[in-house]
Amino acid sequence: MEAYFQNMVEELRQMRRDLHKIPELGLKEYKTSAYIREKLEGFGITELGTWLETGVVAVIRGKGKGQAVAFRADMDALPVTEQTGCDFTSEHVGCMHACGHDGHVTVLLGFAKYLQEHKDELENDVVLIFQPAEEGPGGAQLLVDAGLFEKHPVRCIIGCHIFPQVPQGKVACRKGAMMARNGEVDVHIYGESAHGAQPQLGHDAVLAAGAVITGLHTILSRNVSPLDSGVLTFGAIHGGEACNIIAKEVKLEGTMRAFSDEAYETMTKRVQEAAAGIAAGYGCKGEAVFRHMYRVVDNDPKLVELLQEVAGDNYEETPPYMLAEDFSLYLQKVPGMFFFLGSGNAEKGYTHSLHSAQFQFDEEILALGVETYAKLLKKLAE
């Protein structure tokens, strides 16, 4: 790591710990937003915009020789009670930065300082997006809908995520699909109640629901190409009133994910058709209600090649993950790249997964994040 970035470690550590103490849920990140603005203004950055009340967009002007480049950090936390035992633990009971967003904000703040101190060397304008509500309801789409790219046209957008399944000191990425398109589905089964001793007088929604679950799981093996990937999981079932009453209604709650739009849309169509058809076979009515969420994180191959160049031996190719990320919604508008900033370190005990109440990481990785952004920007200017 170059000396400039190594010398940032302690400042980055302090910023991250400041942010870790004040986690806030999506669209309520008021303290976080104020902290970001205070730091940016302290660095001498004056072109700041407020979006969605808590989002902050900063612009650092270069020589204007090419279209601007955007970098994004998410800033919201999770409704998790922290159990790390660290001395900078969350001051907001029941809320925690359990997904590393405090680190993402810190990387972008460190990058902002670097940009301001190297303004005379910048070929392009740089747009820094501090985005609220990644965990929900999807702040990226809200920003896009609010006209983010109309006000700030960019040639591409770059982001990263701290990731414990990648070793500390490494960055990981892949060309094309890296994270899944996802959605949620509620399947409602409507039957007719009757006495449990006289089932012939009713239509059993519980029995139909069991058949629907079994049938829906054949969609991936028979309707989606075996060369594609998808997952359909039902994690909750609600229904019935008593052990001796034929249930008149059952609700299944599930998640569905795929690495291609084609597979996802096939799953959506077949879930609706199969739920209705199978339920009808039991004298019931079945219908599916979908909440389509994030799209495939589809990395631009040329940007991934630039990351490989700047990371050198620190680069790893990641397998695709069925996780989802609203960064994908920016990619519906502009080319971009999302990469993992490795945080896994068994020797220091940094192995807990994202969203865990014990999740922690070594803040030295943040300097690598800043350096990677800086080197990518230089490559893009060549």
TrEMBL record:
Its cofactor is Mn(2+). Mn(2+) binds at residues 99, 101, 135, 161, 355. Residues 185-277 form the Peptidase M20 dimerisation domain. The Mn(2+) ion enhances activity. SUPFAM superfamilies: Bacterial exopeptidase dimerisation domain (SSF55031), Zn-dependent exopeptidases (SSF53187). GO terms for molecular function: metal ion binding; N-acetyldiaminopimelate deacetylase activity. Keywords: Hydrolase, Manganese, Metal-binding. Transmembrane segments: none annotated. One of its GO terms (biological process) is diaminopimelate biosynthetic process. Pfam families: M20_dimer, Peptidase_M20. The keyword Heme does not apply. This is Amidohydrolase. It comes from Anaerotignum lactatifermentans. The lineage of its organism: Bacteria, Bacillati, Bacillota, Clostridia, Lachnospirales.
